[in-house]
Amino acid sequence: MSLGTPLGTLTALTVTVTVVLGLYVCHLAYRGYRRNDSETMRVLAVGVLFVAVVPYAVSYAVAPLLSLTDAQTILGVTLSHTVGLAAIYRSTSST
Prior knowledge:
Layout: H1 6-36, H2 39-52, H3 54-66, H4 70-93
């Protein structure tokens, strides 16, 4: 990501806002879990974390550190999304 261009700056801003909002929603769900001892809220917090935060950690931290190829990075992001969506589905379908 090149910050020297307007598109690079917009991308960096969008990534930052997505991660911050994802962490905030995850925090709220985790607080709900702690306050009400609700398994549903804990699973929702994990789902939001894997959908909104982990993909960016994979793309911008793990991939450069481990010298992952583009295909490996995309696989990591896709797996993160899949785990997150499965967790969110589980949180909405549990009784």
